[in-house]
Each structure stands twice: as C-alpha cells, then as structure tokens.
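FIELD: query
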Amino acid sequence: MISIILNGSIVGGREGMTILELAEENGIYIPTLCHDPHLKPVGACRVCLVEDESSGNLLASCVTPISSGMVINTDSQRVIEARRMNAELLLAGHPDSCIVCDKGNSCELRKVASELGIGHITFDRIRRYYPIETANPFIERNLSLCILCGKCVRACQEIEVIGAIDYSFRGFKAKPATALDLPLEQSICEFCGLCVAMCPVGALTDKLSRYKGKERESVRTTCPYCGCGCSIYLNIRDQEIISVSAASENSVNNVSLCVKGRYGYDFVRHPERLTTPLIRRNGELIEATWEEALDFVSSRINEIKQRHGSNSLAGLGSSRCMNEENYLFQKFFRAVLGSNNIDNLERLNMHPVVEGLEESLGVGANTNSIEELENSDVILVIGSDITESHPIIGQRIKRAVRQKGAKLIIVDPRKIKLNKFAELYLISKPGTDVALLNSLLNVIINQGLWDKRFVSQRTEGFERFKKHIQKYTPEYAEKITGVSAQDICLAAKLYAGAVRASIVSGTGITQHRNGKDIAQNLANLAMITGNLGKEASGIYYVLPQNNLQGVFDMGIVPDRLTGNQRFDDDGVKNRFEKQWNVKLPDKPGMNAIEIIRAIKGGSVKGLYVIGDNLLQGFADKNYISEILKSLDLLVVQDIFINETAELADVVLPASSFAEKDGTFTNTERRIQRVRKVIKPIGQSMPDWQIIASLSTKMGYSMNYDSAQQIMEEIAQLTPTYRGINYSRLEKEGLQWPCPDSNHLGTKFLYEDSFEGGKRRFKVVDYNPSKSPDTGYPFILLTGGALYHSGSGAMTQRSSLKEICPMFLIEINPEDAKELQIKDGDIVKITAFEGDMMARAKITPVVQPGTIFMPLSFKLFNAEASKKNILNRCKLEKIEKQEYSGQHVGK
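FIELD: result
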C-alpha cells in the first residue's frame, strides 16, 4: 500500500494505481474525456489534470501512478484554470451544433464545459469540416465534431482487436480513419458499434436511434442471437426499443457487442409480426380469437389421440424459446398428451458433441467459462469460424494472442479471419479430422509429452488406447489429411507443452457423420495432456443458438428429462410422475428425423412446432412440404409467418424475447435472466402462457402466474438447477451445476474428479467416406455468418439485411474459372436432397473442390450420416431472371 495526501486527507492505495483510480475509489470526481476503465490510459485530453503540491507539477491523473509523498489537489484554482483552458481549446475547433446533435445532454464535452462554467470561448475559432458519412445502415460519422480523444481507435484495436480504424494524417488534419480513408462499409469494420458507445461527443452516432429522443428506461436482459449469452440493456421510449447497449457488469461480453446484438433488434416491431391467431378455413388462414384457436387445437389433438393413440402426436421445441417455455412444452407432451415424441431441429448441430462428451467425460457440455479463454497459453480452434459465428468469443481469443502471448492453432479446410493470429494453420481435407487428431495423440504419446500424473490418477484404458494410436504416425496422417507431418508434430508439441490449453470447436465438426468421434477424440486430447478440471483449459463447443443448451437442459429430447436425467431411470421417472401427478409414457420417443419419417409413414398424425421452420431447415422443401401436408393437424407457434406456418392448420402468435420474462442458458452453462421490456405486440402471448392455456383447456391445469413459478418447479426437479432462482439471477447469471441455494455455480467442470470416477480413453478410428456419385464433384461446407443467424427469421427482418441482404456461396477462383462463374453471378447448388440458389462470391478462402455457405441444412447432415458420405453437391450458373433474391429450394 502507498499513502498520499489527497485533497487534504491521507488515503492509501495499491501500488500501480493511478491518481484517477484512487480518487474514484474515494468518491472524488475528476472529469475525463479520453479515459475509459476498459481501455489503456493515454492522457490525450488533459482535462483530468491535478496538481501535485509537493512538486508543483500539473499531472494527467489518468496516466500518473501514485507514489509516496504526493500531495494531490484535484480542484485548486490552478487546476481549474488549466482544465478550462484545455476544454476551451477543444471547443474552439468544435462546431456549435448542440441543438441538432443527437448526442444531446449525453455529450461529455458539453458536460465538462458546463461544470467548468465555460460560456464564452476566448480563443479564435478554427473549424475542421468533414462531410457526414451516412452510407452504411448503422453508424453516422461526423468527424467535424471529433475531439481526437482516441477512444474509438483504442476500442477497435484493444478490445475488438479488429483495427478497422487508426489515426490518419498529422497535426491539425489528424483524424481517425479507415485504411486509405475509405468509408466504413468498404473497410474491415464489423459494425460492432463499440466506437459509437465510447465516443464522448457526437462524432459517431447510431443511425437507428437518431432523433428518437433519450430513452426513458433501460432494462437489462440477454441477447436473443448466438450461444454467447451477452448481457444487454434495451433502451426504451414509449414502448419502443430505440437502442441497445452492452451491460458490462457481471457479463460475458463486458463492454462489447457484435453487430447482431447491437443493431439486430428492430425485428421486434417488424410489420410482418404475427399479431392474431390464424385458423385454416376453406384452404386459407383466417384470423381468429384465442378462444377459437385453442378450442380448435385441443379438440383436434384429442380426436387424434383417441383414434390413433398418444404416439401419433409429436412436437418440436425451439432453441429460441426460454427455458421455462421449453420446460412447459415437454411437460405438456409428456404429462398431457402422453407422448415422448419431442425433439428440436438443432439436435444435428449439438447431439453428436453432447453424446461424445458425455460418453468420454460424463457431462455433455462445455467444460469451462468463456472469460477463461483469455488466460489460456495455447488455444486449438477446430471446425469453427469463431469470429463470424461468435464474435465475442473470437475477441477473447484474439486478445489472448495479441495481449497475453497465447499461441493459436487453427484446423480448418477454409481460410478464416482468425488465421492472421495463428501460430499454426493446418489446412485439412474435409472429413479427415479424426485422422489428424489421432496423429496429434500419436506424437504426444510417442514423444512422452502426455501428463503421466493426470492419466494415471484420473483415466483408464490408456495402454489399449496407446496401442491403437500407433498406426497414426504423422507421415500416415499426412497422406489422409493433406497436413504436413512437420506441422502435425509442431501442433502436438505446442498443445501438449502448454500449462493451460483450450480447445474451441463448432458446427464444422458436426457437418459429417463422425461428429461424435471427433468430440471423443477432442476429449482424448484434453485428458492425455491434463487440460481438464482447471481454469483456462478444457473443451468449448460454441452453440449456434442463444438457448440451445437450455433446450437440452429442459428435456426437449425424446429420451431425457430435465438436467439430462435419463427417462429410463425409474427413480427419475417416479419423481416427475409424483410432481406432475400423472403416469408418464414407458418408452423414449422419436427424434426429429424419425418424426419426419413417421409422418411420411403415416404413424404420426399431429405435429406441434414452436419457434422453428422445418422447410428452412431441410434442403428438399418439396419433399418436406408434401410430408407436412399429409398431417391431420399441424400447429405452428412463432413470431412470424414462415414457410412451415403457411402449411399449418393453426398458427399461434408468440411474443418475442423483449415481451416476456424468463431465462436463457448460454454455451458455458450460464443461466441468465430475460426481462419483459415492452408489452406484447398485438394479441401475441408468451409461449409459456399459450402452452399453459392450451393444457388447462385440455383438462390438465397449468395455473402459473409467472415464469418465475415455472423456474421454481424446474429447480425442484433438476439437480443441476436446484440452486437457481430469480432473486439469485437478478444481478448476474449462474453456471450449472448449481446444486443448492448457497452454491456459487460451477465455473469449470471436473475440478476434483470426473462424474462416475475415472474416464476411459475412447478408441476412435478414421473411416474414409465412400466415393460419391461423380455427378457431385464439390464438397459443401456450412457455418456461421456475422450478419445473420440461423434461418435468418429475425436478422432478415432487421437492419442487418441492409448490409448483407442475402447469403453468398464462396467458390474458389480455379473452380469459378472452369465453370465460367463470375463474382456476383447467380448459381444453383444441387445436392442429393435438393437444390437452392444464391449469389456467388469468388474467393481463395475455400480450397478448390469445396464451396462454403453460411447456412446449415440438417438433411444434408442426416443423409450424409446415413450414407457415409460427405455433403456433396454440384454447381451451375443460372440466369438472373430466374432468381428471386431469396433462397429457393425445389
């Protein structure tokens, strides 16, 4: 501790603290313009000056560390005069446009001038005028107002680690600019909006909230997009969301948001929102009352159940819905309808990993917290374009490399943005990940790099595994994967040599039939090096949807109840039967693919779909469409009319995330509050209220007053959620397992032991895919997109569509030349299961013989698994007049 005299009082501070930090800690205000606690201090604005009376010096308090003997005065006459002069100098070059400036009373320069009593500028006015940039849909740049505080530059470089802007020119002409001073939309800017949030004046403003006035209320909630689970404030005025800002305290994202989280909110009031129930009459969907709609659904379900039995009914839950809603949905099916035929369409993105990790480690979920990535020594990224699909997690990886010296290994058949941060980039052939991982394990074992203590104390089956892995030498793997033996050895040594190593994977490892094998091999890799059960290590599978973890946690699967409790466990089943006061079905139900086949076969007569679009989820739309038309009853519950809803007998209007209370569970197992900020649009209702009303009408009372009551019931039945309640979630989320109300949540799994004792190494062999039909020469890769999410139901109805109106197909220049396809041409992809059209993007980021689309087609995955093939397709150029501007499946 260091003691100084601060405004006449002796105060103590920690070594390394700045004067500003010490003053703030003691409740003393010092004005700043260039300072932010999340950025490195630079002392650019000089309005934070203080006087050290022991030396007579004026010091910039934000960059000056405290030292013994200091006598600091923060408001002496000399200090005030110096601050006033610096503020006047800034104002002398600042336009008098406060009345029309959208920053208004939030302007920090205006606030400082007011505090210093500046009413008249004594310096000559020298203005810099720049044209206002408004071409992009999100950010307006008026650099005439810029005070060169540098916050935007530092935020882009230090926090986002993108570097889209930097200082340009010198002296009086200096300004923040992109490379070659291009407009933002022509630069590498990703429109995260952090520069706008940091700007103290009106030089950078959000276009979506311009001239809407200042918010009257800010409500903390959770982002509805990817699995990061970012905490946000929805800023409300007159029942309208006028802007979104980051909730930096106790959050995954700190001060950051991605473009979707900050600017993708206007779908909430899109004119296409469903506002009334619809019933099909004489072939058309006609508006109806809630009473009519619920009567119709309940009577038709009862009719089907009586004629064909409970097993003739099936449901598909949603990773967009909240935990409480998914819980009630599966309760409705099991307790009211007597059917276990319940699943979700995202199972093909997650189930192979869940199954693989569960068999290998005991729990089918991410092992560690997102924030820990930043402290890893080595990070292996495999099958994930993380900066596109999960930008906030990508940030952490980039900061770990640039600011903390971490080493990054990337395994991907496609060149991704993260490559420039990588120590090693292994370009593997699609579908050969198992062979590559086995080769890494071979090097680790044969060169004695494995963690002998961890292996002996916490694993079993090592000798058998060691024998199996011997054939996968780097030379053998090179022939299969295309990755050089030298690079395989380097990657193995780098990963095994780290004290703390993390593995980050994504949907790229579940695109092919061996997703489970890859997940188990990743577990083998983490176990053999002892990178489990400790901070800044472990395995991360980044989930594509905001509540995909919650879907599995809430039992939206045919063979598990909440908290991954097995349905065939009599003790578990009996506990649920007692709580729900019903007899549950005896056998597990059908999964999503089996449900589709059962509809085609005629054994499933009724289907209830919440928050998803089957026709967007499968490639052959005509095939799925004909199957759905054969149903006796199709119920769709959503916030928009989609292609599946257009075939429905009943469409029920649900409320968006901003219109209801509940919780989401993110990719790191963190359960977080979602809060109602506006009234439901039209006659729409929260999904849980719709389900509860339907259940009550069918004779099974679900009289819940709030989502909070539902969570209380979930906690009673779910060991991993037992310590969860809304009061504990008020300020921050909690990570399961959280077994009681005093437990602080589990930051990382397996600290002391694995579930069930020692874990066995899984022997995983590489089985090459069968040769495909020669008429399908290309391998189709899919993945996440920066500007869109899932099927695009929300993002395509937001301002995000303006900057990225459609998905693009990435084609290698060599293939494009051979097919005579140019950049921007319309092309048709034809696969085994169907075809679609989109616009071509010619780029070397994909290898010859492969194409990439930022969209996941589940049937490709399912059929590839069944046929033991890769996702094969062919390409052809088509005339533009045949293209409608949207994906077209035939």
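FIELD: remark
The first helix runs from residue 19 to 25.
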